[in-house]
């Protein structure tokens, strides 16, 4: 993929970056170099390589998975303007 000066101006406008006409050619070369490097990365053979989330292998912190009743219905509706039987009461808006 090749970037032209019109694309550089469009990207600058979308990013809300002021780019002078003299800087457009320099940015065009820089963006083409970046895209060339990205294209080189697609040529790397990654078959058999597992995806990783970190450079250092580490175990994720996990909490114990246990079922609790909660018993917090009163606390949840405590700040509601109106409630009934642990449910929020709201005014009717559709007739």
Automatic annotation (TrEMBL):
Query: Which reaction is catalysed here?
Result: L-glutamyl-tRNA(Gln) + L-glutamine + ATP + H2O = L-glutaminyl-tRNA(Gln) + L-glutamate + ADP + phosphate + H(+); L-aspartyl-tRNA(Asn) + L-glutamine + ATP + H2O = L-asparaginyl-tRNA(Asn) + L-glutamate + ADP + phosphate + 2 H(+)
Any GO BP: glutaminyl-tRNAGln biosynthesis via transamidation
**Record carries keyword Lipoprotein:** no
> What EC number(s) has UniProt assigned to this enzyme?
6.3.5.-
Question: Per UniProt, which keywords does this protein have?
Answer: ATP-binding, Ligase, Nucleotide-binding, Protein biosynthesis, Transferase
An example molecular function term from Gene Ontology annotations = asparaginyl-tRNA synthase (glutamine-hydrolyzing) activity
**InterPro entries per record:** Asp/Glu-ADT_sf_sub_c, GatC
Q: Which Pfam families match?
A: GatC (PF02686)
Give the top-level enzyme category: ligase
Q: What does this protein do?
A: Allows the formation of correctly charged Asn-tRNA(Asn) or Gln-tRNA(Gln) through the transamidation of misacylated Asp-tRNA(Asn) or Glu-tRNA(Gln) in organisms which lack either or both of asparaginyl-tRNA or glutaminyl-tRNA synthetases. The reaction takes place in the presence of glutamine and ATP through an activated phospho-Asp-tRNA(Asn) or phospho-Glu-tRNA(Gln).
Spell out the NCBIfam families in the cross-references: gatC
Which PANTHER family does the record associate with it? GLUTAMYL-TRNA(GLN) AMIDOTRANSFERASE SUBUNIT C, MITOCHONDRIAL (PTHR15004:SF0)
**UniProt family annotation:** Belongs to the GatC family.
Can you state the subunit structure given in the record? Heterotrimer of A, B and C subunits.
This chain's protein is named Aspartyl/glutamyl-tRNA(Asn/Gln) amidotransferase subunit C
Native species of this protein?
Jiella endophytica
């Amino acid at each position: 993929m090749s970037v032209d000066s019109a694309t550089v101006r469009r990207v600058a406008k979308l990013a809300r970056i002021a780019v002078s006409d003299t800087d457009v050619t320099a940015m065009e070369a820089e963006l083409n170099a970046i895209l060339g490097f990205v294209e080189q990365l697609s040529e790397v053979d990654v078959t058999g390589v597992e995806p990783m989330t970190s450079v250092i292998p580490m175990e994720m912190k996990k909490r114990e998975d246990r079922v609790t009743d909660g018993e917090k219905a009163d606390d949840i509706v405590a700040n509601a303007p109106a409630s009934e039987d642990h449910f929020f009461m709201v005014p009717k808006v559709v007739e």
